[in-house]
Known about the structure:
Elements: E1 8-16, E2 24-31, E3 43-56, E4 81-90, E5 107-120, E6 129-139, E7 149-151, E8 155-162, E9 172-184, H1 187-197
Antiparallel strand pairs: 1-9, 2-8, 3-7, 3-9, 4-5, 4-8, 5-6
Amino acid sequence: MAKGKSDLILRDRLQFTPDGSGNQTTVYGRFDLSEYVSTLERKGLAIKEVNLMLRDSTAGNTGNFVHSQGDLTNASNDSIERSNLKVFATTRAYEDAADVGIASPDVLHIETWSTYLGPQPPAAPGATSSYMYADHYVYPTENLHPDGFPVVTDLLFGVAVDSWNLINQKDIELDVMLIAEPITINQKQLTEMLVQGQDQ
């Protein structure tokens, strides 16, 4: 949470809807920061924390997004079924989430969720069983540099999904909470942003 006396807590809610197979090509939601940033006025924000929460508003009384289950349709197959979901914060719109990693310019936060569903040997003749395994990773660390990540534009949140059929055709909400401090952008920072922006 906000620790500095000038820190702000900023919130927004974005939404995406996977198709009938639980897939979603890369889409973006825009976190409007125009009240706080302006290159002409040298106003910027230092983003210190990015906190994300996925929500399934159709999920009973809680709206909890089930992170541990993705593909439930192939438990008896001989192959391992994988489901993947990726969310990232950036000031640059990448065409494909597959190209986004922690070394990508202008990316300040990435989270991935993966589930694996595979068969186990039958416990008895004719019986089938399966196992499921889930991962959730946050890249980079949840705490950004002590001085924050300086931005002078709106922040984009990209989402992409592969084979997460548990949420097919559902409106999934992405809640975002930022901890940020208003700052004055100096010429060195503007130059660094320009150089990074040209780094393809």
